[in-house]
## 1
Amino acid sequence: MITVDEHRTRVLDASHVLPAERLPLAAALGLVLADDVSSRWPVPLFDNSAMDGYAVRRADAAAGAVLRIVADVAAGSSEDPPLGPGEAARIMTGAPVPSDADAIVPLEQTDLGIAIQETPPERITVLAEPGQSAHIRRRGDDAPAGSLAVAAGTPLGAWQLSSIASAGHDHVAVIRVPRVAVVSTGSELISPSATPERGQIPESNSVLLSAAVRSAGAEVVTVGTVADDPDALRRILDELDADVVILSGGASVGAFDVVKAVLGGERGIRFDAVSMQPGKPQGFGVLDSGMLAFCLPGNPVSVAASFEMFVRPALRRMAGHSVIDRPRIIRSAATGWRCPPGRTQILPVVFDEDTVRPSTSGGSGSHLVTSLAIASAFAIIPAETERVEEGDPVTVMVLS
Ligand code: AMP
Ligand code: MG
């Protein structure tokens, strides 16, 4: 037996960051930026008004001064109206400040107040003298041209994408996400809508894994189901074009364990007993094609646990993320439960502000698919713990 950490280390050592590609901003959400993005311009681009008001020459704008309004500057205007002594321009927020002006008097600091007419007034009386550069956002105030807008390695969310657009770019270099194939094995598997005959069950692992892969930010390129037939499995594997294949079922030592039969002989693939429950039989390695192969046990809860412990961190690393793990929190056990001796327990749970409890009362069997439907987390109980007592602190890996 190897430990969960030993297996995880083996997996992560083989999971390398993928190359970069250029994508339009609209396609880059959630991806990791490959190169620093710098601003093509100073931000702001030009001196502009922070208020609706009047652009004035400060020397003429003492309290009580009457100014003649000789121009009207809206946002987007390309004009630079000259201002002589005693003259001012009406100006709207974001509009370029006339070169002759050195302060903005907001509407509310004039005798006319904030009521805006379609055409500018002929004259205004200034109520309070503006300070030097009052309400002017100066060119380059926020950042000079060429300054770093978003650093390489940053995962791109809405805020980062908008910063990149402001910096003058509509494409970005991002780390490519892994392309993943999902293959379920088992002669008992039928489509969920079919009517099972004796011995048959609905195939659900590919549904779980495809959704989990997509939730992890990776791309699903192939989904397939194959019977416990070595030739059929070999054919499917030969045709795959992916960075990662996730197989489920047939990874143990049963008479028909097709994945182990086919891949057990491959250089680079190793099958281990990992000291965890569920998820003990695990195969992993790199195929000659360079494709990573995860061979997970077939039980649905084992698949979910194996994905979270090993596959998801690998997919995140390949996509360039530095945070590859789910957040973990500590909650107090609302009830006691037994733990498998010498194995890390990975138990579907529900939790609230204070407490955590198993999501079913029926124990932690790897076949208990219903325990997943109401679970929102896995409790991770160390191998050396034999029993969780009510009130014990429990590590909870939060899934969303
Ligand atoms: P195996 O690891 O192939 O021995 O499978 C263990 C258990 O998981 C068996 O009861 C299988 O029927 C079940 N199982 C395997 N693959 C799937 C699947 N894709 N969907 C649902 N159940 C499965
Ligand atoms: Mg099987």
## 2
Amino acid sequence: MSAIVIIGAQWGDEGKGKLVDVFASHSDLIVRFQGGSNAGHTLVVNGKKTVLHLIPSGILHPDKMCIIASGVVIDIFGLIGEIKKLKETGFEISNSQLLISDSATVLLPYHKALDQAREKSLSESKIGTTGKGIGPAYEDRASRRALVMSDLYDTKNLLAKLEFVLKEKNVLLTKMYDAPEISAKEIYEQILPVAEELKTYRATDVGLIVSNKLKQGRRVLFEGAQGTLLDIQHGTYPFVTSSSTLSGSAATSVGIGPHHLQKIVGVFKAYCTRVGSGPFPTELTNDVGEKIQKDGHEFGSTTGRARRCGWLDLVALKHAIRLNGVNSLAMMKIDVLSGHDQIGVCTAYKLNGEIIHDFPTATDLVSQVEPVIEFLPGWKEDITQVKNMKDLPLKAMNYINFVTAQIGCPIDVISVGPDREQTLWIKPLFKD
Ligand code: GDP
Ligand code: IMO
Ligand code: MG
């Protein structure tokens, strides 16, 4: 078992970054496979916090190789900023630590401008995007007008390519959205020094590199971004992101065969959160929801927006387990639930007076369901310093056992705090 895919099993921000950082010490290669700088992955090591958006969450381990695969949309200016920040904090970031796929899509300022202009123009039906240009960048990829990373190094043709793309974008920006025009020449000049720096990390065939490492028996982690219910095909469309966030996309986005993906780890919080618009069946718009938000510091690391909070939704979690083929789970942030008299868990939905156990595929039905909540006794103890499962309060253990029994998939890791060290292992990694 040398390939492990780590995906979010809810609406994002489950704690994937923390888990990847923890798993990375047992791995050789960490590959980020989709999304862009809409992601915010927070790592805490000895109390020191690092937020990553594009760089894989293994980067704090200097002896590991991190790869950004072709399925990612790369805000090159954002990426340079992330590299710079890491360098300022003492990380070297050489090309034996970071590689960037030549065929990854380049995300440029006009993608952000369009994303933000579109959201601004919508009233009721806002998606609540991060404004990072993700939708427009993936659109360009699908309509075959995107620049890819290798275009940046071909400086002879770069300006012409930008002029071609901006011809259409500027009509949209100025005529449709009353936004300022963007100059191809200006962007070109900004790109040149950035491309020179990024060239250091150039990788022509990431699929080949990863395949060879797997052949040599190296341990590879595939890091997902966002979450299952934000998937472009299977999420609560249109309140989703623009990439496939599911485990299967790790193979296509990296360029390896799907048979390699044997262990699929679903990361979930012991409760639920969602940022942006869209249905959220277990949302708590009361003081209990506020307590979870406050205790869990549920404010986005990319946009600073408050995350909506609610009880754990097992209907949605089972849906995520099925869509991804999850065979191992990591429960994060159970420490945040300390201090409640009782803890709710959604075990079914009520729709038009009937009890259902499957997550509806139609988004308008998801917004109509009522959650069926079972309550379990809460615990008061602070569990952030617990080092072994056996030292968890009985009521916390009951909660974990209840969830495991309901979902029929093993929970192999429990996280009791943001720090790398605050992780309880039930089963070792890279074992069947
Ligand atoms: P990601 O996008 O899935 O990587 O998750 P984020 O990093 O956006 O959000 C998770 C937040 O919870 C971050 O601030 C983490 O530092 C924090 N976190 C992760 N695991 C735990 C945990 O077990 N307990 C607590 N209290 N915080 C955690
Ligand atoms: P990580 O990797 C939580 C949400 C946005 C919005 C929708 C579409 O940190 O878990 P987009 O900018 O992608 O077009 O926005 O998706 N969203 C996330 N929510 N965590 C994320 O990433 C997210 N990335 C996008 O809030 O609702
Ligand atoms: Mg996040």
## 3
Amino acid sequence: MGANSLEDSFGRRFSYLRLSVTDACNFRCVYCLPNGYQRSEGAEDHLSLAEIRNLVSAFTELGMWKIRLTGGEPTLRRDLLEIITMISENTAVKKIALSTNGYRLKQMAGELRLAGVSAVNVSVDTLNAQRFSALTGSGQLPEILEGIEAAIALGFESVKINAVLMKDTNESELALFLSWIRRRPVSVRFIELMPTGQTEAVFKKHHLQSNPLRMQLLEQGWTIKPRGPADGPAIEMSHPDFQGSIGLIAPYSTDFCATCNRLRISSTGGLRLCLFAEGNHSLRHLLQRSSQKEDLKQTIHSLLNKKEVSHYLPEGRYGNNQTFSSIGG
Ligand code: SAM
Ligand code: SF4
Ligand code: SF4
């Protein structure tokens, strides 16, 4: 089985692995973990460094070259830098990205860069400190923004902000975000709120389509960048007067899944074929020894045949996803 052999029945190729390293989090975002993280009794431990090494080795031999570390909050893991260093020693990995709520970014940005992270995505749904506290349970917006400045100064290849669009909360903040990125090389990605088992009510109350935002941006002279062959489902927009850019992630839009290029692994080693799939396929038993690699590759390959063409969100089905914190969003 050679490189680039991860292709599903619909001709989509998978180059991008989203690896959750913990399901724990210290924030309580209303659309993700509204009651905060609670470890369930008898819950399995997160993958060890050795298990992650075996996993990444198999996936890269199947053609994956971009790895995103996510969670829960990945910076809560004490051995995060060791994980990153170990992954960056695998020469087939061309890009290591990190998704974080940013609470330790100011202190950690330098170490993360040195260890091998080249792209950071920080969740900042609002630039208003009071609203930020209400949405996340954290009073740390100023420090998080300083962490983003530190990441820019350190020359990360890409610094992105993820902002979940919500009716009656941050929907009026477009102008604020735009003035913030006028002189900062940061991409703000507006993500449409998605339903999960724990947050159905929040979804019903606050879901907002991103299309009106797109129209507003087009009217203000923003243009949609052409899509590269390895690009995922986000729409990227740029404007000559702005150093930063805008991304829109609109899962309800037509053909959103046609460019799906990613697979997900839960913190306990479950392969999730789609964010909205009905379940995970545990790979953990195949991560115990490096000698299991061929078996592991074979298993991943055949599981990929089960990947469906799209999600079923318009039909009101979102799989058994209770919260994105268990699978990294
Ligand atoms: N804790 C890190 C963070 O917040 O960036 C990484 C994990 S978090 C689950 C990954 C992404 O999922 C975040 O950008 C978050 O905003 C997004 N997310 C979580 N729940 C969501 C929901 N119901 N709808 C849309 N995006 C969601
Ligand atoms: Fe934690 Fe990220 Fe979920 Fe917020 S979105 S609760 S920071 S895992
Ligand atoms: Fe891929 Fe599923 Fe996301 Fe569609 S919803 S882009 S199929 S992971």
